[in-house]
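P.,

For your records, the input lines for the assembly:
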Amino acid sequence: MNAAWAVCRRELLSYFATPVAYVFIVMFLVLASTFTFYLGNFYERGQADLAPFFTFHPWLYLFLVPALSMRLWAEERKSGSIELLVTLPLELWEAVLGKFLAAWAFTLLALALTFPIWVTVNYLGAPDNGAILAAYIGSGLMAGGFLAVGSCISATTKNQVIAFILSVVACFLLLLAGFPLVLDVFSGWAPQALVDAVASLSFLTHFQSISRGVIDFRDLVYFALLIAACLYANTIVLAIKRGD
Amino acid sequence: MIDCKGLTKQYGRLRAVDKLSFSVQSGEVLGFLGPNGAGKTTTMRIVAGFLPATAGTATVCGYDVETEGREARRRIGYLPEGAPSYPEMTPLAFLEFVADVRGLRGEERGRRLDEVIGLLHLESVLAQRIDTLSKGYRRRVGLAQAILHDPEVLILDEPTDGLDPNQKHEVRQLIGGMARSKIIVISTHMLEEVDAVCNRAIIIAHGRILADDTPQGLEARSRFHNAVTIKLGDPELVPAARDAIESLPEVESTELDDNTGRVTAFPASGKLPLAPIGELADSRRWELSELHLESGRLDEVFRTITGGASA
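Structure tokens returned:
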């Protein structure tokens, strides 16, 4: 586990040693505010809640998180530093976990920096701060899910652009798994149980219930399982492809 | 000790390493020689735990690199080909990261960091980003990382590639200084490096071992081994001198290098022609500007053994 922490620390330091960190955080904050005020009509609604803010998070993450996750392994494989990393005395899963935690911590930092909107809504009215906290937790979990998917895909290629595009597509399908766009592919031929199973994978459905302030244990388990499964797959992909 | 048995690595239809078996004992400095694509890097990658072997086993200090990889890797210091590292980090942050993953703690961590930074003269670049460093410095950062935990086994893939002659000399001295207590495996294209640091050399091509000997043993296989090269002050005398030398029973044949005017006399098998040639030159009053005994030429042995093989 110490090795995983060392990997995590190194990775985090790397974000801030390059412009990646600053570009990501600034763009995240700018886009989150733009969506909230212009598309979400934050003021015009006249309600003291952050629904207009959280509604757009899945779409914001859809493009920003793969931009962060694409380099996790693809860059390491391209530059050859993966050879150095995996010949250190650590297990592959520790490296996978360390890198994921670093990316997640970084995303959570960006998310935490949106606190002025919370201050604003509390200044303007009396919102349900419990619901807002729940929504923040849900948003953080969803970001973790996107990152885990992106990390796994990043391990399959040396090319960051390919990793980005595949991650966006995979995340898009996962987001909309509960909607006709995806379900229609299955509903014609697959048994209802499979259609329901696919529908239950939808990020959006799980996020929407949390973002309304309802923390359902099943939603937490869903994100935890999704992250664990993706990181496990990530480890296997690396074990197979590390030398290619 | 390193012990490889029947090590094989297959890439699709290409067999990069073909049933390689060898073992290396403590105190040995083994030089891996071979043309490009011979399987040197692949073999080192398997032993270092980066690539899984298709067949065969490799153990390091008694630990199987595949099934007990972590224990094996604890005991190995590895410099991958091209000395990869993290370009956005500083050498200090990079070495601290490696120290952390290797589990170095407290006083020992500081002591080891100071020691390798001193040994590889990294003091002046510690706070500079690695991607702004020269190739030589990057290689030294890679070497520092490999010896940081004072490993029992060192695997160095082309450790002096890209270094200038002074740096090469320093790295070779460093390797020589560590050699007594460790197992060191280096791969190289530079044959003089084998002479300079190794006490054993394995020549491989097409994934197979073609020769396994001491550098001196390999030199002895050269047709230049015990040959004598002379240069006459008066070039007019060369044809007559060649005839006279060739008539000596200790000499098999002679060769004239047209560019330099040097004449090399190859010994008849098991004979030492140095003394007879010296006496001959004395009695005929040749004015010699050069007279020396050849120990053997590794590059020639290398070419003969590998048959000019390359991939």
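Two observations worth noting. Residues 228-294 of chain B form a domain with the Alpha-Beta Plaits fold (CATH 3.30.70.100). The interface with chain A takes residues 45, 48-52, 70-71, 73-74, 76, 78, 80-82, 84-89, 93, 97-98, 100-103, 129, 145 of chain B (CB under 8 Å).

Regards
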